[in-house]
Amino acid sequence: MSLQRLPRRSVAARPPTEDAPNEKDPLTKRRLHKSRNTRPRRIWDLLSHIPSFLLRFLRLLSFVMFLLPAFVVFVWHYVACDRVAAYYGGCQTCVEEESDGKESDTDSNCSAESDMHGKKRCNCKDPFWSRHYLDIYGSRTPSPNPTGKKPVVIFLTGGAWIIGYKMWGCLLARALAPFGVLVIVPDYRNFPRVNIKGMVRDVDMSIQWVFDRVEEYGGEKEKVVLVGQSAGAHIGGVVVALKVWDWLRGERRSAMESSNSNGNAAVPRRATLKSTYTPQQLCGFVSTSAPDNLVTMKPIFNHHGLSADVQRSIFGGDDQSKEAKDHEDVFEKWSPYHLMMKAHAEYLNLLSDANSSENPYLFSAFPRFCVIHGTSDKTVPVSEAIEFIALLTKLKVPTDVRMYKGWTHTDPILEAPMRGNHLYHRDIYELVRTWTGDDEAMKVWDDGHPMLRPICPSLLVEAARACNPF
User: Fold this and answer.
1) Which long-range contacts does 254-258 make (Cβ < 8 Å, 24+ apart)?
2) Could you give the CA distance from residue 233 to residue 288 in angstroms, rounded to a whole number?
3) Which residues, including other chains, have CB under 8 Å from residue 313's CB and lie 6 or more apart?
4) Cis (ω within 30 of 0) for the bond into 192?
5) Cα–Cα distance between 72 and 24 in angstroms, integer?
6) What is the rounded CA–CA span in Å between residue 331 and residue 423?
């Protein structure tokens, strides 16, 4: 049989095969998203790496045991101090729908009424184990201000996006509340219950609650400072950058709609976040030990036990396609470093539309920044802070810097205040005085205040630092 007699098989005549789905198709993309980024999948990604977490858990247990005397005082103060818990979220159904990228239907899922500003508020009550509560410290403490109003500090706790809890902000509130500062520590859902998108929504929603309701608790909404540590600083940085980006796009959209000179240009899309406060309402943002560039932090996260799969599951957001996994854009999407650059690009577009070479928009869009970092931080190397400071300086964003020599990742919030070193708390207090313009009305910081005394022997603190898993 000759080769010429072999039947030719045309490519077009081949029977259809089960090829890989077309991930560019919207319906296919939604189906793949549901199969790849569900809560059971996130839980499995986390549980599959339990062996790598076991050693760190043992170190964490030793860390807690050495600091047990301080944690006893810590817990007692949390239970007995001037603290009020308030609910800041909508009903559970609405919040879960928003976190999954759906539009919540308040009218159908819950009973809602309009407040004095015309904004709908959900009347549904979540169970007491909901993560949409915040702690308010110092609402009953007398204010040194003649008006009776207090400056407000919103503190976002860390916890590697997995073990964060509002109670971790107790020591900071214990130090600031006696000096007339209203400290608010919001809780937010962690991984694997939600990914980073849900955490950002929760924090944004809690900040909106502060501007809407803080005056009911003695706070002054014109004097709000946002503070974050570690993962909380990362989430806070994302929220601030997105709010600035949204604000600049809104300014550009308004300018384009009012003047039809750029009719062929693409109008910027609507806001990413649903809150109504502006970034200018924040007097400042204090970023402490923050992983601002997730792209450069990937190998460091992996070294500390967050594998590539877990990282993608946390930061992948609503884009878990193969193309997204093969590139860095899912990490850039949730990096304050890259979001700052996107905001700057939008600023340049605004200048281009206005045919101007200089405009005060970018300087007025951002709140004031302060970057605080320990030079001995191994969880988030100090080089991350230096890189972020360089970017802020390049973008001409007003930035203060505090570098704590020899401090580790958790020293500002745990070890240092436990042994009576309140340098971090004092710096935040002085920034609040400066940024809010309350220099004369606020008390002078007193290191001898009873609430600033050591609560753990230095020997135990040093032993805990030696086995610190962070």
Assistant:
1) 255/350, 255/353, 255/354, 256/353
2) 6
3) 37, 41, 42, 45, 46, 191, 192, 195
4) yes
5) 55
6) 33
SS3 121: strand
Q: Kind of pairing, strands 150-156 and 182-186?
A: parallel
294-303 and 382-394 helices, crossing angle to 10°: 180
Q: How far apart are CA 469 and CA 29, in angstroms?
A: 39
Q: What is the CA radius of gyration of the chain?
A: 25
Which H, E and C letters describe 410-457, residue by residue?
CCCCCHHHHCCCCHHHHHHHHHHHHHHCCCCCCCCCCCCCHHHCCCCC
The SS3 of residue 288 is strand
Q: What is the dihedral of CA 30, 31, 34, 37, to 10 degrees?
A: -80
Which tokens in the block code for residue 172?
A: 């900071």
* Segments of the chain scoring below 70 in pLDDT: 1-39, 41-53, 90-128, 258-271, 317-328, 353-363
Number of H helices, E strands in the chain: 19, 10
C-alpha to C-alpha distance for 454 and 129, rounded to whole angstroms:
32
Q: Hey, CA dihedral for 190, 196, 201, 204, is it positive or negative?
A: positive
Structure tokens at 200: 């950002």
Q: Are 136 and 83 in contact (CB under 8 A)?
A: yes
pLDDT digits (tens, 9 = 90+) for 307-348: 888 898 899 755 445 444 444 578 999 999 999 999 888 888
Torsion of CA 170, 174, 177, 183, to 10 degrees: -10
* Amino acid in position 55: L
Q: How many residues does the chain have?
A: 470
Q: Phi-psi bin for 408: left (phi > 0), alpha (psi -120 to 50), beta?
A: beta
Does the pTM exceed 0.85? no
Query: pLDDT tens for residues 180-217?
Result: 999 999 999 999 899 999 999 999 999 999 999 999 99
